[in-house]
Amino acid sequence: MNRTCAICKTDKDLNDFYNGGSWFCIKCLKQRSIDDRNALNDRYIKNRIRMITDLGNKEMHYSIIHEMREWIIKCDNLKDQDLRECYRCKYIKPIKSFAKTMNICRRCKYKEKKEREAVQIENLEDTHVKYRIAKVTGLSRHEMHPLLIKEGRSILKRMATYHNHSRLRLCYACNKAKKRNLFAKSICMECTKKRDNETRKVHRDSCSDGYIKSLFCNHGGALRRADIPKGLVDIKKEEILLNRTVKKIKQKEKEK
Ligand SMILES: [Zn+2]
Ligand SMILES: [Zn+2]
Ligand SMILES: [Zn+2]
Description:
Number of strands: 8
Largest sheet: 2 strands, antiparallel
Structural class: mainly alpha
Distance between the termini: 81 Å
Strand content: 5-15%
Bound molecules: zinc ion
Radius of gyration: 34 Å
Order of helices and strands: EEHHHEEHHHEEEEHHH
Helix content: 55-70%
């Protein structure tokens, strides 16, 4: 299928158009943007303003367009000396200290980013909530269910409430506010204990070497885990597993 370009009036393959949806072919569009830049016409100026301000075309007063055109001409003159004026701080700096779009210097760009992030944190916007969720869960942004985002926001809201609280602190595990002296690191004692018990249970159930060694070292004895020989561990393990089997068989007989 072919299409006629509205500028050069020639029939061209669809691949010569952007996304198949444009009236003008890629070659003509590129030429047009070069011509616009050289002529500094309104279309080009408005594009540049949109890059900086997010203003709509109808919101641009002609004085803004005039100011922008003057500024570009000024920058073009400075360019010969490898200099440029920053649109935000109005300082004249070397070209290499400018970001990609060449409108504002890197320092201003960084400031802008920080300001934007501060607003996002202040209002708990989706971007910030998603960033925090990704940090904890490792999910990518499109995998997050709206309910998860909602929950994340309410947790962050609670965290902000207790962030600088004089007496209370929020536990990351149980999400309860507790007195500050009841904490070990960022988790409350109760949750720490629960977590430790769970780990111990896993080791006990699997009869790991670490668990068996700990049986010899407990009760404040002088032995350390490294002192226990492998042979002893194996014998003890066999004994424990045997005892467990016997216990199971006895229990089954009782049930009968
Ligand atoms: Zn064309
Ligand atoms: Zn600047
Ligand atoms: Zn807790």
